[in-house]
Amino acid sequence: MPTPESCRFTKSHEWISPAGPSATVGVSDHAQHEMTDVVFVETPKPGRKVKAGEACAVVESVKAAFDIYAPVSGEVVEGNAALAQDPSLVNQSPHDKGWLFRLKPADPKELEGLMNHAQYEEFLKAAAK
Amino acid sequence: MSSPAAALRRTCLYNAQQGCGGRFVDFHGWELPVQFSSILREHQAVRTACGLFDVSHMGQVFVEGRQALEFLQHVNANDIGKIKPGKAIYSHLPNERGGVVDDVIVSCLAPGRYLVVVNGATVEKDSAWFERHAKAFDVRVDNKSEEFAMLALQGPNAARVLSQIAPNAAELPRFGALELDLYGQHSVITRTGYTGEDGFELIIPSVIAVRAWQDLLMQGQSFGILPCGLGARDTLRLEAGLLLYGQDIDDDHSTLESGYGWVVKFEKGDFIGKDVLLRQKKEGLKRKLTGLKLLERGVLRPGAPVIIDAKEAGTLASGTFSPTLQFGIGVCYLPPDIAVGRRVAVELHGRKIPAEICAVPFYKAKRA
Q1: Closest Cα in chain B, distance from residue A36 (Å)
Q2: CATH code of the domain in which A46 resides
Q3: CA A92 to CA A112: how far, in whole Å?
């Protein structure tokens, strides 16, 4: 599975890993920490076409619900079925077992507009100030 | 996350709680921890071992004088005459329209001397209400909320932990109240709480709050104690069917409608709102606070619409995910004829999720 260093990041704290025929999407370690204990995840249905920035999944902790936005446009090919049994995977393993869904990007160039890991770390530092 | 506005009030335990890893949020103008380690773990600690909460935002009003009892009977729905010195009672303060000014715990400290513990968000409102109604009585009402801190020590191991610093208080019966010297300061401990478990509430002068907080956490280590935040407080109280003032009851919803009819003692004599409540009882209720559980995995939220027969029948007053039961639970004002077991739906994120009407409380502790 993707290391954080190989992922691209959105300002809304999703990561996307373009490795393989489809791209995998999840939330960053920073995001899962802010969300606190995840108790429910609603993933998008395969076949759904999403636009970059479109809300397409929901992650819920005890205290709040968080919309998850598609980092790039494309077609959803799979949701992470393991999250139905154990939503806490998002907390335990945000970059691996806690991935949310996979999609086939419509335009690979859209990925280049996202932050790389170093830029995302800088973004988090700036936001903490 | 943005830093909270400077205007937020902090309890005297703010620094101590920050040292424990507390994550703070704005709660009715107070900067209080929503969690320390994890809401789920804190919840579990209270159900199986022990948890410690800072509830210093709550208010303490002392009522004293020749007519203290008469005054308290006038403003309370419950029968304060039933509690002797050393006992506490849960009660509602009704308004003239049958609504609820606040829900409170009244302790009788001595003949003619009482302590009323009120909600944090309603301290000023309750004080004004008491002042207004106290004029007709020979009584002194003293809001000492600024001077007192308050800790809630909750869970099956609470008595064992408390016995380390206050052995006499650890022997209290349920709803017992004890005045004592704690670290040389005049304090009150009651065997009460807001979690559905055994536990105690310590009403202590602010000067000893940090010491008591740290001692209890240290003594509680071998008993599985965790510092707990507002997040676990809410899941614990909702599982136990305990009301949250401002959400489940308020000035416009009555005690009878909230399912707490047992609090209203019509036979005790006159009190504010009695005629309206009697009329409600005679004519029958138009709505009742009703429990729901989600039949699919998910989290119920306050404000979510409840759909019965394809029509919106109400919106949830409270809702959460029950860590003990592992499904979504909530309460909603619905017509009183909706039976337990009835299938309904709740709208969440634009989808209608199947739910079922169920009895409250959702969870009952097995007490030794």
Answers
A1: 7
A2: 2.40.50.100
A3: 28
Same domain, B132 and B189: no
The whole model's pTM is what? Answer: 0.94
- Let me know if residue B323 belongs to a domain: yes
pLDDT confidence of residue B6: 59
pLDDT greater than 70 at residue B3: no
Contact A40 B297 (CB under 8 A): yes
In a domain, B259, yes or no: no
The residues of chain A scoring below 70 in pLDDT are: 1
Mean pLDDT of chain B: 96
Task: Tell whether A89 is covered by a domain.
Answer: yes
A60 with B321: Cβ contact below 8 A: yes
Query: Which residue in chain A is spatially nearest to B39 when comparing CA positions?
Result: A37
Same domain, B52 and B159: yes
- Three-state DSSP class for B14? helix
Q: Give the nearest partner residue to B299 out of A34, A60, A84, using CB atoms.
A: A60
Chain B residue nearest residue A41, CA to CA: B298
Task: Give the pLDDT mean for B189-204.
Answer: 98
Residues B124-165: tens digit of each pLDDT: 999 999 999 999 999 999 999 999 999 999 999 999 999 999
Q: Residue B368: pLDDT above 80?
A: no
Domain that holds residue B71: 59-143
Q: Give the best residue of A63, A83, A85, A89 to mutate against chain B (max B CB count within 10 A).
A: A63
- Count how many pairs of residues, chain A against chain B, have C-beta atoms within 8 Å: 39
Please provide the DSSP assignment of chain A as one string. Answer: ---GGG-EE-TTSEEEE--SSSEEEEE-HHHHHHH-SEEEEEPPPTT-EE-TT-EEEEEEESS-EEEEE-SS-EEEEEE-THHHH-TTHHHH-TTTTT--EEEEES-GGGGGGSB-HHHHHHHHHHHH-
- d(CA A85, CA B270) in angstroms, rounded, equals 55
Neighboring chain B residues of A60 at a CB cutoff of 8 Å: 298-299, 321
Q: Which residues of A touch B (CB under 8 A)?
A: 34, 36-37, 39-40, 42, 58, 60-63, 65, 84
Instruction: Report if residue A92 sits inside a domain.
Output: yes
**Residues on chain B touching A34 (C-beta within 8 angstroms):** 1
Domain-embedded: residue B73: yes
**Same-domain pairing of B49 and B66:** no
Out of A40, A61, A62, the one facing B298 most closely (by C-beta) is A40
Q: Are residues B105 and B138 in the same domain?
A: yes
Token pair belonging to B224: 């599985």
Structurally, chain A folds into a number of domains equal to 1
ipTM surpassing 0.90: no
Question: Is A58 part of a structural domain of the chain?
Answer: yes
